[in-house]
Amino acid sequence: MILSSGGKTLCYHITFLRPGAVMLRVCLLVLLLSVGLPVQSGVNLVTTIQPLTLLVQPLLAEGDQITQLLPANQSPHHFALSVSQRRALADADLILWIGPDLEAALAPLLEGSGAALEMAGIAGIEWPVGGSQHHGDHQHGLDPHLWMNPGNARVMVSAIEAALVAARPSQAAHYRQQGQAFRDRLAQTDAAIRARLEKPAKYISFHDAYGHWNRHFGSQQLAAVGSTPEQKPSARHLYALQKLAPEAECLLAESLYANQNSESLARQLRLPLVMADPLGQAADSYEALLLNLAQVFEACHR
Predict the structure, then answer these.
(1) Are 119 and 155 in contact (CB under 8 A)?
(2) Domain coverage including residue 236
(3) pLDDT tens figures, 97-112
(4) Per-chain mean pLDDT for the chain
(5) What are the record keywords, sorted (predicted)?
(6) Backbone angles phi, psi at 272, to 5 degrees
(7) Are 184 and 51 in a shared domain?
(8) Can you say whether the dihedral through the CA atoms of 246, 247, 249, 252 is positive or negative?
(9) How far from chain centre, in Å, is Cα 2?
(10) pLDDT in tens, 139-192
């Protein structure tokens, strides 16, 4: 018998295991009475990149779901949306993205969307002043890799917390409690990294992506090969890099793009090659992403 009220019927599917591996599936039909508690489903979130997934995961309540558009081994600078990715965006209650300077392919779909929360547009984000070179692929000239500053991460967590509360008010206390606990952990991680990086590293980077890290922790990027990790230096730029190389302690490349080009350039510049993981391929938490980066900058010292 199916019970309903107000045109609503709720069906739970439960699987029981009995000796002999006999499985029984029972559908329990629940009457939703007008005097009963309202049923509110979880928030359907979409994140574009792994660092945003790591920032929102600690806040989530039971029933919330995340879909991450891009795997951690895919560059957010250049990609084309699949049909399934477009469907995920259309079905989302909340979409977390950095902004058009990083995920340019999403700008036509997300700018002006009521479901989208653009991290680069949040008040309180700190931006690096200047840089080793202009970010040619970043339409507003700003370094969009803002998650590498834990101060920015705390600002983003607060904004995500507020968006979750608005999307699911019944879990407001949970989101606020988890958000505060996460911000406290980030402050502790920040202090631990500062203690480890007393001597700032001087380096040349394959990818001009570390301005937020440099601003916060004091590392010094002398030059960059390009504004995206796929770029190669021109002959003129290579000459300029060779002039700067004696002042640098290492050449910083990224594990996602490790190839013969980075190894060859390290030999040409006579610098040790160190590999960073700014997208958090090997990280199971945002704190781990930061600590892994700290280890890389420690290794940069000769």
Answers:
(1) no
(2) 197-300
(3) 999 999 999 999 898 8
(4) 84
(5) Ion transport, Signal, Transport, Zinc, Zinc transport
(6) -65, 140
(7) yes
(8) negative
(9) 45
(10) 446 899 999 999 999 999 999 999 999 999 999 999 999 999 999 999 999 999
Asked if 201 and 138 sit in the same domain, the reply is: no
pLDDT at residue 230, as a whole number: 65
Spatial separation of the C-alpha atoms in residues 167 and 177, rounded to whole Å: 16
Q: State how far the Cα of 224 lies from the Cα of 131, in Å rounded to an integer.
A: 9
Looking at the fold, whether 179 and 54 belong to one and the same domain comes out as: yes
pLDDT in tens, 35-59: 444 546 899 999 999 999 999 999 9
d(CA 118, CA 97): 5
User: Could you tell me the sign of the dihedral formed by the alpha carbons of 101, 103, 107, 110, in that order?
Assistant: negative
Share of the chain above pLDDT 90, in %: 66
For residue 120, give the CATH number of its domain.
3.40.50.1980
Q: Which long-range contacts (CB under 8 A, 24 or more apart) does 224-227 make?
A: 224/132, 224/133, 225/265, 226/136, 227/133, 227/134, 227/135, 227/136, 227/137, 227/138
Kindly state the average pLDDT of the residues 188-216.
Answer: 94
| Final residue before a domain boundary, out of 191, 222, 249 | 191
Q: Write down the residue that tokens 């699949």 correspond to.
A: 82
Tokens 């988890």, residue located: 178
